[in-house]
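Reviewers of the previous submission asked for a worked example of the structure-prediction workflow described in the proposal, so we include one complete record here. The input consisted solely of the amino acid sequence. No template or homolog information was supplied to the procedure at any stage.
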Amino acid sequence: MIFRMAVVTAALAAAADWPMFRGVNGSGVADVATAPVEFGPAKNVVWKTSLPFGHSSPVITGDLIFLTGAEGGERVDAGFGGKVRDTGGKLFTLCLDRKSGKILWRREAPRPRIEHYQTTNSPASPSAATDGKNVFVFFADYGILSYTKDGAERWRTPLGPFINVNGHGSSPIVAGDLVILVCDQDAGSFLVALDKNTGRERWRVDRPEVTRSYVTPAVFTPKSGRAELIVPGAYQVTSYDAATGEKLWWVRGFSWQPKSLPVIDGEMIYAHGWEGSGEAETPTETPAWVEALQLYDANRDGWIGEDEIDPKMRKTFYQLDLNRNGQLVEKEWEFYRAKRAARNTLVAIRHGGRGDVTGTAVAWRMQKFLPNVPSPLLYNGVMYLIKDGGILSSVDPKTGQILRQARLAGALDTYYSSPVAAAGHVYLFSQNGVATVVRAGGQWEPVATIDMEEPVFATPAFAGDRMYLRTRGALYCFTAAR
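From that input alone, the workflow returned the following structure tokens.
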């Protein structure tokens, strides 16, 4: 009960702030009376501050904004699958003054290794988290670090290295006196909780049933009982006791490689995952391991090498060989079969039960018109989904019924930024930097389209009557028109 009250108290105290990726508990909803609707590179700009490269979203507490970034080095072709790597740039945590945009301090993180990442990712994609007194940041090339609001380092905890061909994207969260991070990867996935005051590991839970993901968890606080961590992952959604890491329940039938965070509404939990291979209505049939050995294991040594596999599969062999040792074994093949059978889905889960609750807790599923990266937004009784191509859907969260669906004029683009809501409007930002503001409601309607003139991957933050938006090269502060 003490842990549960600590989580509730922290959430209430931070209600006016934006303490993690997409605000309080990742909801994406700003508790503000007014927010900018008309804005742009030269319109209603309070200030603009140049930033180093990175996709992390702004996090706010009081008059401070926290971000991460990378400088120096060179992004070069990693030689496979559209991936890149840096050649040795530096990683930074930055603190800005919310009123002026001035950079108050920047602290360099160690970088003992350089991971590969997808061209649309960055070495500074995970967003910071704050408890109102301190800030916590994660870099996949090092681990987690904590600083005071004044920039004094409190502790550092190495993690990894990680096996993730696209680079990491999961952000840390603060739950009570713990800092929690999902470390899903191609092999050796785990969930870890560190003491927020010391950085020491309090618990760690292996997740052998899942492969890579880029999700950030959310906290579910039941009417009675202890707080839970809701963690989407490849093939299933799982709940853990936030204080101990005990696995409580799970729902199967989830997609492969999810990227968004779950949304909590009362006793309901909404989780979504999408991957290109999961769009077909009928799962792709894949031979069982015994049959695969007969087909491909030419020398009959009990495993399949890259030179033995079907030539059509050799370009993506690195995605099958999860531990990168050149030997495809049964467990890796079974993950491959699971990936090909997984379907994209948005699942609505009623809280309650223990163990496998797939058959009892699922209220509805939706399998079409789903986003790739952006998280769902639930605002004033309506759910919003933004799919690549600029397809915006409003959905009844009670039934999964689509209320309205249309393309956003002038924003037929891919989307990495997640939708957010403030003062009766929903805000959407495309990769190329086109912002669409719509009047919220089941029958939503566009009210503004703005070209920011440079790419946007981050999700904006709100505080007071201002919006804070990170573009490719800067952080903007916009004010509501007066």
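The mean pLDDT is 92. We consider this example representative of the routine output the project will generate in years two and three.
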